[in-house]
Amino acid sequence: MGEKSISKGRCCSWFITIAILAIVEGAVVYTVKMMIGYSDKPIPLGIIQQNYSSALKTSMQFFNIQKSGKLVDNKIPWRGDSGLKDGIQASLDLSKGLYDAGDNMKFGFPMAFTATVLSWSILEYGDQMDRVGQLEPAQDSLKWITDFLINAHPAENTLYIQVGDPAVDHACWQRPEDMTEMRPLIQVNTSCPGSDIAAETAAAMASASLVFKKADSTYSSTLLKHAKQLFTFADKNRGSYSENIPEVATYYNSTGYGDELLWAASWLYHATGDDSYLEYVTGPNGEDYANWGSPTWFCWDSKHAATQVLLSRLSFFKGRDISNAYSSGLQNYRKTAEAVMCGLLPDSPTATKSRTESGLIWVSEWSSLQHPIASAFLAVLYSDYMLTTQTPQLKCGSDSFRPSDLRNFAKSQADYVLGKNPMKMSFLVGYGDKFPEFVHHRGASIPMDSTANCKDGFKWLDSTDPNPNVATGALVGGPFLNETFIDSRNNLMQTEPTTYNNAILVGLLSSLVTTSSAVQSFT
């Protein structure tokens, strides 16, 4: 954000089933019904891994801390109602949604990304979440965002993308409950397009429509309607939102919209089965925007690697059902996804050198953990696609790797985050014996009974005392390349948490909750 403007602009690029639970002689197994000709073989679900289960329960709490609006069944004693009048000047209710990080801003680009990743995590690993009681909290947090996104899209070609003025917001240090300043709105429309943010919001709506399809078909249909409209708006009115609205570039600058268009179309294909979306991603738009053959990092600004993995899902699970007209394009996505995986595996001949000495993927000093957790999430997804379809190996040059190699890489990144690192500390607040105590977060740093106004609150930013409120579940920015960490509120690049990184961590931890997993079918 303003204070972390560099972190939001540093999302770097790289060199970069159906599963049916059965009970067999007292053991829980997955019987995987293959869709592309493989024989049935039980895949053990495995026992619950208590460390990842505990970390998942912890990380899920951060979404409650970040909620704006009228808090129902509030589980965070030091949080209360806030932002209740957001959107009032446009006769809209934009009170819900999540504050993006340690401030009181609502930025639509990272918020939509948070929703898309949460949806993907639920769709792939909802059964794992359910085993440890975290599926319902994940769905509730997702709906808190999608309720906001629906209201932020009042007309086909209008999307409200920001609530609040960051310059004003960053001139204050106050709890969101105590905000009194004006909360202006920013929108994209046909005269001021934002293909990147509109397409990311379409991806969020489309993926979420799948999450709620069985539980609430009416809500699911509403989400899908908005997703289709937003994708059409994004595609027909091309332009980057941060170029058309330069003031947002300081906080969440977009480096292009082609990846979001492909990402959204991929999710719309999964949500609808409409071949026109598959044609979109494999035809000229794919050739123009997909970066086939060029591995990249996955983060809030770059969706290429995630799109490649998501579309690889089709070739894994529906290969024989896909028209030949699209097979070549899908193979290009899968080959690039394989190149991404080969770059992540530390023993691969094409392994990236972007790592710390202890093996953590490290790309940027701002919010450094965003890349390792995102890389690990994609790796474990790809591993589980291989496992579920009984694909024995991944070729990296002359070497071959198994699904377990990808899973072990993912675990190494998760374990580092949770305390297996030279600092012997957890970067997940509230998990483990040692974790950051000076998190860059307004609400956590200010006593709930404080009467400090906008300017007076800065004494809490500069206080040498630990935060009076623990931001449980917050994933902080992370270590420097030399594997050091300075626990200070004024060290935003290392101590500020974000909702979108937490969403990726939730997906990663959900995948590791049991000793082995088979992904679900949502196509």
Keywords, please?
single chain, 523 residues, Glycosyltransferase, three-stranded antiparallel sheet, disordered N terminus
Q: Name the helix and strand elements from N-terminus to C-terminus, one letter apiece.
A: HEEEHEHHEHEHHHHHHHHHHEEHHHHH
Helix-strand makeup class:
mainly alpha
| Helix share, percent | 40-55%
Q: So how many helices? A: 20
Structural domain count: 1
Whole-angstrom Rg: 22 Å
Reported CATH architecture: Alpha/alpha barrel
The main sheet comes to: 3 strands, antiparallel
Overall mean pLDDT: 91
CATH top-level class: Mainly Alpha
Q: Strand share of the residues?
A: 5-15%
Number of strands: 8
CATH topology: Glycosyltransferase
Strand order of the largest sheet: 1-2-3
Tell me, what's the shape?
Answer: globular
Low-confidence stretches: 1-9, 12-42
Distance between the termini: 36 Å
Model description:
The protein is 45% helix and 6% strand. A hairpin with a 2-residue loop joins strand 1 (19-24) and strand 2 (27-32). Helix 10 (258-272) packs antiparallel against helix 11. A three-stranded antiparallel beta sheet has the order 1-2-3, with no helix packed on it. The protein has one domain: Glycosyltransferase (Alpha/alpha barrel). The chain has 523 residues and is mainly alpha-helical. The relative contact order is 0.16. It is globular, with a radius of gyration of 22 Å. The two termini are 36 Å apart. It contains 20 helices and eight strands.
